[in-house]
Amino acid sequence: MACEILGILHWNEYSDLRPKSFEEVEPEFIAHCAQVHEDAGFDRVLIANSAHRPDSLPIATWAAAATKKLGFMIAHRPGFIAPTMAARMFAILDRMSGGRCGVHIITGADDVEIQADGDFLTKDVRYRRSHEYVDVMRRVWSSAEPFDHEGDFYKARGAFAHVRPLSGSIPIFWGGSSPMAVDHGAQVADVYALPAVGVEQVRQMVTDVRIAAARYGRTLDYLISTRVLVADTEAQAWERAHAMQRRLMEEVVDNGRFATLPGETGSQAIERGLTDANRDSLDGRMWSGVTRVPTGRPSINCLIGSTDQIFEALMAYAAQGVSRFILSGYEPIEDTRHIGQSLIPRLRKALA
Q1: The dihedral of CA 132, 137, 140, 141: what is its sign?
Q2: Helices 334-342 and 27-40 meet at what angle, rounded to 10?
Q3: Superfamily of domain 4-229+301-351
Q4: Would you list the domain boundaries of the chain?
Q5: CB under 8 Å to 238, separation ≥6 — which residues?
Q6: Would you say the pTM of this structure is higher than 0.85?
């Protein structure tokens, strides 16, 4: 298993407590945040994608020019450009960056959301298309001569790339929990990405993917993506967590996303919302208390506790076969540095 620590790179200095308009683009922040991740010891950064986000490839290109060794996990959606063209785009970035490119295949879980880009296929059909897409890209990366391809979704004559990846290929990341996602990911992925869930759920998901991969004579690496809220002591971590959660709950009560009941004051609504959000919100070290506040902004569960407790929680995932971790905090610069100082050296030593 390859140990790899990843962060997240946004196109502006966004945080949960200080959200910025998605319309704001901050090139200086992109470069600075990438450099902070590199200096903190991260191997890669994830650059996300969706039907409304800025495209991930230009962000990766900008960040690559500002760094020397930081790698990239570039979220990419099949279906909107030809796989031959995508293969050439990723190959040239890989060569220009010295072999730092990685592609995260996003098939899309929400049928409605991807219709914004004109994709009206069902999810199961999209997984079949993503499989073929990866096959074509890999063939472009490896073929020394032009080739023809005729599949269920793509047809090409004389496909070829003069510039191919530095090492001959580019790692493919893949995610999804449905049987179709697991089956196709087991056939084409190098790394299977898992969500921020408890250890027992991760154990079952890894088992399912391993069984599927074994049918095709393959083995994969496994990655989990989680926020981390880490402090010197557990009490300090919870103090920060509850202060952040309260500020977010105050926000949603003020803006009407969490409605007050008849006769209820705003303060009472906040307390009711916090009680609801914290009920059964802890699974081991995995806390869902922030994700339950209806801000309308993307959020995932977080691991919470002292440095020792977070390290032990991550090692529990490692015991299930996870060797790659996307670790992000709630402040894009300060938390990245803290994770680099407190967790990354210990993880590398333990997983070596």
Answers
A1: negative
A2: 10
A3: Luciferase-like domain (3.20.20.30)
A4: 4-229+301-351
A5: 304
A6: yes
Question: What gap in Å lies between CA 6 and CA 197, rounded to an integer?
Answer: 17
Q: Please state, in angstroms and rounded to a whole number, the distance separating the CA atoms of residues 187 and 341.
A: 37
Report the C-alpha gap between 99 and 23 in whole angstroms. 31
What are the tokens at 171? 């790692």
Amino acid at 95: R
E-only strand ranges, the chain:
4-8, 44-47, 71-76, 103-105, 147-150, 155-159, 172-175, 191-194, 221-231, 282-283, 286-287, 302-306, 322-328
Question: Average pLDDT by consecutive 10-residue portion of the chain (352 residues)?
Answer: 91 90 94 98 96 94 98 96 98 98 91 85 93 98 97 97 97 96 97 94 97 98 96 96 96 95 96 96 94 91 96 96 96 96 95 88
CA 214/CA 207 separation, integer angstroms: 11
- DSSP-assigned beta bridge partners for residue 324: 4, 223
